Amino acid sequence: MIRDFLICAVMGTMVFYSVESFASFRVCNGTKNLIGVAIGHPSSQGGWMTQGWWQIPGNSCETLLKGALDSRYYYLYAEGVLHGEHWIGNVQMCVGQDEFKIMGINDCYARGYLKVGFTEYDTGQYENWTVQLTNPRKKDKDAIDAESS
Length: 149
Prior knowledge:
Layout: H1 2-22, E1 24-29, E2 35-42, E3 48-56, E4 60-66, E5 73-80, E6 86-87, E7 91-95, E8 100-103, E9 114-122, E10 129-133, H2 138-148
Parallel strand pairs: 1-10
Antiparallel strand pairs: 1-4, 2-3, 2-5, 3-8, 5-6, 5-9, 7-9
Pfam family, one: DUF1036
InterPro entries: DUF1036
Protein name: DUF1036 domain-containing protein
């Protein structure tokens, strides 16, 4: 009887830790090309924070945030490193040209940062979330080309 209890206790502990270790916000790059990814999320100090760049090779995944997700909304921006693809959205946030961690999403240019459109992801009540980035639609690429002309 004690043996059965110990086996159940060990198995329960293993399940608890394995579920916790998988809790995360992940991004998978479904293209053949290297992409740079930035994420926006609530800061533990209040307000919003953006951080990047994660370099994700083609056909691979990267964990951006480890642990159970404690917010409902997360924001993502990505761009192709070599070919200039963009995955953009309507929520304007700050990014740096090099590796960055930026507190706040206002006055990007005045603080020496760029402002780009992040895509919103509603994770609901899930502790895990994975975003699959595939080749951007031609319409999105044309919109970027028109903005940069």
